[in-house]
Automatic annotation (TrEMBL):
This is Bifunctional alpha,alpha-trehalose-phosphate synthase (UDP-forming)/trehalose-phosphatase. GO terms for biological process: trehalose biosynthetic process. One of its GO terms (molecular function) is trehalose-phosphatase activity. It comes from Arundinibacter roseus. It comes from the Bacteria. Belongs to the glycosyltransferase 20 family. In the C-terminal section; belongs to the trehalose phosphatase family.
Amino acid sequence: MKNTPSRTKGRLILAAYRLPFKIIQNETGYSLFQNSGGLVSAVLSLAQGQVNTSFDFADKIQWVGYTDNNPEELAGVTLENESFKAHPVFIPPQINEPYYEGFCNDLIWPLFHYFPSLAHFENTNFEAYQEANLLFFEKLKEIIQPNDVIWIHDYQLMLLPDLIRQQFPTNKIGFFFHIPFPSYEIFRLLPTTWRESIIDGILGADVVGFHTNDYVEYFLKAVRMVVGYGNKLHYVNLNNRIVKVDSFPISIDYQKFNDAFDLPEVKHEREQVRATLKEKIIFSVDRLDYSKGLLHRLKGYERFLERFPNWHEKVSFVMVVVPSRDQIEQYQQMKSEIDQTVGRINSSFGKMHWQPIIYQYRSMPFEELVGMYTASDVALITPVRDGMNLVCKEYVASRKDVQGVLILSEMAGAAAELGEALIINPTDAEEIGSAVVRALEMETDEQRKRMEAMQMRLREYDVFAWTNDFFTQMLMIEQEHKKLSHA
Ligand code: ADQ
């Protein structure tokens, strides 16, 4: 680990809704198996000093999050591996249901993705949200020591920064928001006391991060309108401290995806796909969610098939959807609409020996995913709203052959960084259809130029640079606080 003697060492504490570990019982006790997600590897590299930050963390990373394991089963058990110590938060089902399914997934998610008609406003859900944030705080209270740095993630924990700030005024707190922060006209649909609590809650942090400048602007406007604090550039001026609000576009482990191109399993997967599907391949992969524009995508592809019969039998669209939230009625309904639309398109245009859409409803292991990314001629990513969207970044990063065309919705946060993609509006089926033809016919030279430009950007600002950027701001805010207290 890096040594910076000027700073007393504190620990890094992460708080996010779900623990990123599988808790497995064995003969000697319990073991933690960490997920291989981008955030996990990013904080790991930060704590191990691989990231160039002046923070130097003591001890293992402490991770606080919900688990549905039985509290009695884990009572008194230490949960750790070589890098992390896990601190489970137990939320009883009678709170977790209205908190997570109700307030988070049935109100904040649809509202912040601009689907107000799907949003449900229930007082009891907001009460559960407050209670669950308090349960997180109770757990953190047992852990936090002076000099610890706390990094809180996402819309499930918007009240937590201020709960911590009240009791631990000097600890550094960061908050990162993974979904869009909506324009004020949407945000103001929340009842007055709820929106005040949310803004005050988030402003408990020292640094508040969003994916794009637009989300930053919307948040700053909400701050002005709801609680009346002004801002100078990206600093919100509270009475006794300042909060930095800025954009930190999240990214991926670029090198991991780029190197994966040459993995034997990935090569095998790619060759198999290409041997099976002789025609050109269009690919998409997302969670089942109305924000991902799955039906818009199908409509655009259908328009393409109607307008360009010369492409029939020369292209296949492989659409993979990973099951998500399928206990919720809206999601079940959407799933059956997708099933019907795929059936309709395949039966209208298909031939005995050609299926226009190959649709799978399942999760994919990493090697298969990269195999598909690298076998495809086109990636078709059409969210109607997406905080960032990592799939398009993964597609670009994995193309070590510098080939392939990305078609990307302007509604994805990632569109701000990936201007060399063919940018479309997902509600415009004609535009999607035309972009598909343009992508299929694009010369390899042009593909290369566009890919190179996007790859250069993603290589430079990968998930490690993102983490570094965030923590650099956390250090700088300390200087700003000092200036303010001497002023
Ligand atoms: P998500 O809405 O989950 O994340 P996204 O950013 O696209 O969306 O990430 C999805 C991840 O799941 C990707 O790493 C992808 O490879 C993986 N995935 C998707 N379908 C899969 C499948 N069938 N099998 C296996 N893996 C699959 C939220 C926000 C986003 C924001 C991220 C990160 O909604 O806007 O980009 O957080 O901040």
